[in-house]
Amino acid sequence: MKRILSFITVFALLLTACEGDQGPPGFDGVNFVGQSFEGTVNFINPDYQASLEIPLNIELIESDMVLAYRLVGIDNEGYDIWRPLPEIVYTDNGNEFQYTFDHNFDFVDLFIYAPPTFDRSTLPEADRIGQTFRIVVLPVDLVNSIDLDINNLSEVMQYVE
To answer: In 15, 136, 144, 152, which residue has its Cα 20 to 30 A from 82's Cα atom?
Structure first.
């Protein structure tokens, strides 16, 4: 019995006596990392839908938050301008349509959605062809633990690897 007690005491002392350099700063001791990828698609008749395959190196779990952003241009300083989806776009003739998306574990499906009275074939090519999207996958624990504005891609990308 004395041997067991001595062994436990020595083991406990060894664990508490360890010293070393402090590790890199973390997020309250937990490493939350999001991941992202980009793709350029064309929305064509009849369904005005396109799919982006989620890369195999991105581990998507059911509780993850998947966000999508559309590249809408470049500002005067050369930085990309991204808008979160769903995004409502108003046309010159007073109509409106939406870029929207859904996803599963393999694909992100992107859509141009419009009311049945809107003829999507009348959309200019610039609204349908060569549209670039950034897809961001964030752990829900991260989103719930900080005050993250998911509408601001620059802020979101601070937590993406």
So the answer is: 144
Calpha distance 134→67 (Å, rounded): 8
Cis amide prior to 84 (ω within 30 degrees): no
Coil vs helix vs strand at 38 = strand
Rounded to two decimals, the pTM is 0.74
89-113 residue pLDDT tens: 998 888 899 999 999 989 999 999 9
pLDDT the model gives residue 19: 57
Contact in structure between 123 and 14 (CB atoms under 8 Å) = no
Encode 60-79: b = buried (16+ Cβ within 10 Å), e = exposed: eeeebbbbbbbbeeeeeeee
